[in-house]
Amino acid sequence: MPLVSMNEFLPKAKANKFAVGQFNMNNLEFAKAITEAAMAEKSPFIFGVSEGALKYMGIEYTVAIAEAAAKQSGLPIALHLDHGSTFEVAMKCIRAGFSSVMFDGSHHSFEDNIRLTKEVVKAARAMGVSVEGELGTIGGVEDDISVDEADAALAKPEEAIRFYEETGVDCVAIAVGTAHGMYKGEVKIRYDIIEEVAKAIPVPIVLHGGSGVPDEAIRLSIAAGVGKINVNTENQVACTDAIREVLNKDAKVYDPRKYLTPAKNAMVEVVRSKIQLFGSSNQA
Fold it and tell me: What is the mean pLDDT of residues 29-41?
């Protein structure tokens, strides 16, 4: 099966009150773990690729790995640029074979965010590519970008609704209290903001910073209108912990397959548990 846009499954997610997971692809082991877990659960999913990951893997390798996963699994898989910073980066990814892009204009003024997002939507729609937009400022650390949680700004419902109406994005990421990275402290998600926006627009809300958020908070977010949830840090932690355990047990291990296989298996368990929590099992 070829890569698909998020519109192959997000409308169903909104209608049936489940969420599709975006799991970031950082290398081959991540890609294989995510795909293996989704095949076991018969779930659609999204490969998220940050600009940092693109630099690390190379755009040609990234697309080739995702296309191989889609072909092998037969699942509906979207290859999605995560936090694209410019129109040019989004177009580069679309030309290379990405089936979905995020344009993150949240660091611009509200009016400029609308204007720039509209440009991406217009170009992407002509290519059958889905687009995610973002409003508000999500705290935490992602790649080399750090936002102090004190500087994180919640999205305003009326602005989020207008943002959708003027841009026509396929899903909207709004800052509602989560953070990139592993969540620290008590999670205080503004379900009222999610619900108010979700009731007013026909596309799902996206929850960024899904790692470390308690299961009940995830369930409540989905019930309020979240249809896409991003997870990366929990996979990174599981991967690194498994590698560290193997190397600490035996200093003579040097074959990467001896520690990367346990790392991949650890991530399979993380992804399967998230898919089950999100309710997307058997939705492929």
Answer: 98
